[in-house]
Amino acid sequence: MSVRRARPSFVPFGVTLLLTPVLLLVACARRVPRPRSGPVDAGDGPAGTAVPDLIGRNVALVDQLAGAAGLVAVLSYRPRARQAPGTVVAVHPRPGAVVGRGSTVQVSVAGRPGADLGARIAADRRRFVGLGADPDGTLVVAVAAGVDPAVAVSAIRPALAGRRHRVVTGRTTFAELERVRAGVSAELLGACGFTVRVDPVAGEVRVDGEVPAAVAAALSDRYGRAVVVAREEADATGGEPRPAPSGRIPARTRRARVSS
């Protein structure tokens, strides 16, 4: 195992994206995100969102339900809880409380996390950002900023046994990336043909699809280097999407760092 600060080649994660929700936004565009200055705060919009009632639900549904409300779930486990293992036993803030989009919700789950690698990392989002993979199949474990990678990996070593892997220290945290993702998704609620996803290894939120130049520019102004926009334009004749012409934010990746 090697521990280093290195940016891996990004590849679609397949099954490893279990920890990083993907949103497909299919309505048609009516507005453009407004440019703003200052630090990223995904929850600074005028409308809040209610914490969903997760108590009694299975932990497998937590990300789906929290994500639908624009919230970030951080899990903890209670081995001595009397409820069935995998059942949510407590939520903070309380269900029904109105909070800003992108806020973190602490979710307590009965029992212990699963033994597989994905479950172990999902259960420790304070220390891990997520999983990725190199083109040769090597697993990439992304540790959160400010966390000792050796200590973090020691907690999941049994799940890594016999698997080729490497460790990278991220520039951000799981919660911060999810806050940015929630904010971008909220900005693009009126957009069409977009996907928004988190790249946990690179520490970026990616927007892919037929992104109009004005929208791409507004996202860049709003979120700075926290967001990567890979933009394509549909062919005016109705054919396949084509790269945007030069001078209009070409269809190449805008590389980004999450602001601290």
UniProtKB/TrEMBL annotation:
Alphabetical list of InterPro entries matching this protein: PASTA_dom (IPR005543)
Disordered, as annotated region: 233-260
Protein name: PASTA domain-containing protein
Pfam families reported for this sequence: PASTA
Comp. bias regions, Basic residues: 251-260
PROSITE patterns named in the record: PASTA, PROKAR_LIPOPROTEIN
Superkingdom in the source lineage: Bacteria
Organism whose genome encodes this protein: Actinoplanes nipponensis
Start and end residues of each PASTA domain: 45-111
